Amino acid sequence: MEEMHDRLVEKVQTLSDLEIAVLICLVAEQHCIFETEAQLLDTVESELKLILDFTSTKFSQVATHVFGLTWAVLECNEQTTLDHFGCGILAKNETSDDYFNSKSEASNFASLSGSPKRPDRRASKTPNAFTQLDSGRIANIVIAKNLDRANSQVQTQALELMRGKRNFTRTAVYAAPRPFLLVALNELNTTRLSMHLNDQFFMSHKHNFEDSLPNLEEQHQKAQVLDDDQSTSSVIRTPPFVSAKSASLAALFSAEDLATFNARMAKVKISSEVRAYLHNIVVFMRLHRAVAGGISALSTRHFSTLAYALAPLHGLDYISPSTVALAARKIYPHRIVIIAPENERSLQWGSSLEAVKAVLDGVTADDVVEEVLQSVEVPL
């Protein structure tokens, strides 16, 4: 068992930041937000696709990927409708059979209601437009691009999918598979998601220009080498065709690996001193003069859950103070609401509004988290 655990920890140490974030959410069975610059949205999306399901056989007959899960990309904007949402969350990288031979996870409303079935009349009136929708299934990983731009109805539907693990369309009810992860890929410094949806997201991760995208870089290098080989060769060579179905897919983290991490997470211990440290961070966060809200009860539960999930990924069976600090940096930045200067509490006992504006000028949620971590005494 220890050798297997060491092997898993070694594999974790080879992952990039994006891959680790996805792994944490899969282990904790929660959802996350990825934020990046507008120019990097498409590249981060491509990197996530390679992380989830790298099934290209262009460079190798043995395809490799990190998780080997189905994915779907949902492009959101102000005009996104509930129908677009229902269609966009269905798996796109899955080879499915025709409508009559595929096993759909959808359940017709007629069968749910218990009313008498009328197959002949209903089948003749069902429009062909829903055939593709009804035959699909929700992807394991849904990348909701620019979800913050979607209208309130779409964001409410996303919240219901996260909480209820089901999505209702006009013709069917789709159950989310297991594992299931909703990733909100948004631009930095833009409008936040609706309050309840934002709080439902487990953690957030920011990808900057200097951060690497190893899977995309490796793919580009292989493509460049292949192009160079083809240009220097005078003989036309046709690479052997290997179908995606017959290719041997080797996932770096299998379902058994995720189950092992989840089982070890349940056995993680926490001392009374570290538990008090975690509690004090929450209290200091709520009392910080720059915080107007966002430190909810759900965020506190997520804070504790992430601390437990990080321990086995670092090869530990206990929660350390550094693990708690790392969890705080991932749980609270997307939740903290910075207070307006005119609402700052010190004005009630005579502080100057101009002085408060100067103190709060440029303060971000990340600054609040770092200041709280420096203020709270770390247990030895």
Automatic annotation (TrEMBL):
User: Origin, by domain of life?
Assistant: Eukaryota
Q: What is its EC number?
A: 6.6.1.1
Tell me the Gene3D superfamilies matching this sequence.
Magnesium chelatase subunit I, C-Terminal domain (1.10.8.80)
Database matches in InterPro entries: ChlI/MoxR_AAA_lid, Nucleic_acid_metab_PIN/TRAM
Ranges for domain ChlI/MoxR AAA lid: 285-344
Q: Where is this region: Disordered?
A: 107-128
Name its pathway: Porphyrin-containing compound metabolism
Q: What Pfam families does the entry give?
A: AAA_lid_2
Q: Coiled-coil regions in this chain?
A: none
The EC class name is ligase
**Molecular function as annotated in GO:** magnesium chelatase activity
Tell me what this protein is called.
magnesium chelatase
